Amino acid sequence: MRALRSDIAEAIAAVRTRAPLVHGATGSVTRALVADGLLAAGARPMLTESEQEAPVLVTVADALLVNLGSLGSDGMAGMVPTARVAADRGLPWVLDPTAIGLAPVRTRMAHELLEMAPTAVRGNASEVLTLSGAARGGRGADSTATPDAAVAAAREIATRHGCVVAASGPVDVITDGERTARVASGSPTLTRVTGTGCLLGALTAGHLAVAPPFVAVVAATALLTVASERIGHLRPGSFRVALVDALDEVTPDDVSQGVGLSWE
After folding, report:
1. What is the CATH number of the domain that holds 162?
2. Global pTM?
3. Does 134 score more than 80 pLDDT?
4. Please, what's the b/e burial string for 9-42 (b: 16 or more CB within 10 A of its CB; e: otherwise)?
5. Domain count of the chain?
6. Are 186 and 223 a contacting pair, CB within 8 Å?
């Protein structure tokens, strides 16, 4: 456990030292928070999903986020080619299969992207269960299952596709198929601000650029957790601004020592 906490601190510090360029193929609704949060954590954002530009621009990135949250025509056309370029070039990339289940286009696309071997998959428990074929998804972007209910599915996906899988909830579950970590998920206000899940996916991509996959996913989750807990009780609008400030202020040691962490 002590070694993992040390690895978390090193990964967070490395993002701030190396400033990885994160290409975020993510929807317009959350781009501002994703960009500001990445900058506050020490990374650099580049956010586009169009078929004409994204597959070209990703060639200069250090990591990629593919987020299906607000899927428009540009995203439908550009995300798969962009992920394919990243995979072909060996770039680490994150699949965030937001709101899959009943939605036919994004569900089909999520399964197609999963076959392209993402470095990490980050979603809620219902999304993870859907990817495994065990369920039809949650209620929109909200989960109707607990992370513990998705542990077996997460391990199966991780083993079959050679990736790290994170299922978010009251306690986030992160597994590479062999090791499984649990991270206390921070302030409950995170669920009342649009885009915090997208931000976590982007932070995960940034940490994948500087650390081994399992450590990177745990570190990104721990960073957002501890930053959100430092804010205290604020209403959602103020919380959104304070979260960006907290990501800037919290130190690597604050995160590694303050996160609620267990693993097996």
Report:
1. 3.40.1190.20
2. 0.94
3. no
4. bebbbbbeeebbbbbbbbbeebbebbbbbbebbb
5. 1
6. no
